[in-house]
Specification:
This protein has 348 residues and is α/β, with parallel strands linked by helices. It is 39% helix and 19% strand. It contains 14 helices and 12 strands.
């Protein structure tokens, strides 16, 4: 399952965001390091297409795609050296697929800032620097061992690894993420084995309110980000859908899982029927057998063909029977590239 780690300084709203996302109560006391062990929650990805398919088929079960969100305790300056339990928290980040970097833009004294002042640029720099320094430490340790092996005659693998480590070290020393290093195919394999934090994709969530930092819009233009009033999103949890409709309020928290999908280049395909309608997640460009493997390995290993109709075509016709009569269900082979919204029946 896709996992997203929520990172940032202490007291910026990470646990509140987690609560709004997962609708699970967590400890959000107003003091640093109230989150020691990471809170983990499973969040469904809202998709109106799945709801519609479930209605059409009168499905007994409806299973949406899901993302695991991990609320990682606040990092502080010196985290890469273990400050503020930094080593433990950084280890949690290494295991996620995507990093959600939360930044405080709201003003106010009710929640004390760990640095005693609201400075989004400085906050972002602290977190990004700590992640870079943590990766640099990993690279240097590995480089020390690899340099000895590379002196061994005919040890081609060690020489390739050493070259990759040098390129990564250079980028990190320049204050750039590991993802900025230009690596060959073989070198990328080396980098993958290091589980470097700054190789992971990241996007920003700006925690806003009515009293925002004056430079908010400038940052929003410069950074790949979402803007959320997390306190308000949490308060909306107490309202029923009817109450929100009467007030003309639409929660925006669902945009975060959707953004995670976009950042990881993921698409959704569906299986639908009376027993179950379900959304499945694959990387864009996946073949039909690769998509089938998400359901069961047999659908990849024993794949014969797939019957496919895209959601937009199906919804116009309304049933498999009519779709077959109209010739809208296509038979596709192993080379078919799955598209977002495909409804697929796998044949083995």
């Amino acid at each position: 399952m896709l996992s997203v780690g929520i990172v940032g300084l202490p007291n910026i709203g990470k646990s509140t965001l987690f609560k709004a996302l997962t609708k699970n109560p967590v400890d959000i006391n107003n003091y640093p390091f109230c989150t020691i062990e990471p809170n983990v929650g499973i969040v469904s990805v809202e998709d109106e297409r799945l709801k519609k398919l479930s209605e059409i088929f009168a499905s007994k079960k409806t299973i949406p795609a899901a993302i695991k969100f991990i609320d990682i305790a606040g990092l502080v300056k010196g985290a890469h050296k273990g400050e503020g339990l930094g080593n433990q928290f950084l280890a949690n980040i290494r295991n996620v697929d995507l990093i959600c970097h939360l930044v405080r833009f709201f003003q106010g004294d009710a929640v004390e800032h760990v640095s005693k002042k609201i400075d989004p640029a400085a906050d972002m720099e602290i977190i990004n620097t700590e992640l870079i320094l943590a990766d640099l430490e990993t690279v240097l340790k590995r480089k020390h061992k690899t340099a000895k092996l590379a002196k061994t005659p005919n040890n081609k693998e060690a020489k390739v690894e050493l070259e990759a480590l040098k390129k990564l070290e250079k980028a990190l020393n320049q204050g750039r993420p590991a993802s900025a290093a230009v690596l060959s195919k073989e070198e990328r394999k080396v980098a993958a084995g290091l589980y470097l934090i700054t190789k992971k994709p990241m996007f920003y969530v700006f925690n806003i309110s009515q009293n925002n930092h004056p430079d908010l819009e400038k940052f929003a233009q410069e950074k790949y980000c979402l803007k959320l009033d997390i306190k308000t999103e949490t308060e909306l949890l107490d309202l029923s859908p009817q109450e929100m409709e009467e007030l003309g309020i639409q929660p925006k928290i669902a945009t975060l899982p959707q953004e995670a999908y976009r950042r990881l280049n993921l698409i959704t395909f569906f299986t639908a029927g009376e027993d179950e309608s379900r959304a499945w997640t694959v990387t864009k460009g996946s073949s039909a057998p690769q998509a089938g493997a998400k359901i069961h390995n047999d659908f990849k290993e024993k794949f014969i063909k797939a019957e496919v109709i895209n959601y937009s075509d199906f919804i116009k016709i309304g049933s498999y029977k009519k779709a077959r009569e109209e010739g809208l269900i296509r038979t596709e082979g192993k080379g078919y590239t799955v598209r977002d919204g495909d409804i697929i029946i796998f044949k083995i």
